[in-house]
Here is the input.
Amino acid sequence: MRYYETMVVFKYDLPEKVIDEIASKIESTIREESGEILKAENWNKKTLSYKIDKDEYGIYRLWHYKSGEDAPDRLDKYFRITDGIIRFQTILMYKKDIDLYEGKAEEPESENTAETEET
Here is the structure.
């Protein structure tokens, strides 16, 4: 099993119901490959770095998961044929992130927490 991180950018004018349906399909594809979803985040609407097909905004979703080697390929094929997805990327997770999920490392403190302790 390998650890992966997948980011998907949806068109900002897609209904929430459609985005949720696509997200559930992504999660079921991961589970079909004997995978386990470690974290799923909804980053909501963000400004894109540059316009994509005249869109200035996108809705971002992120998944951390572990699965067999076929899951990213199956997801890639699904992303390419699905309307409403404007960008996607799957990468292998960094060692430090994997250690967090395996319990070998502690989660780092945020900078805001350190500042509040000093005052």
About this structure: The chain has a mean pLDDT of 85.
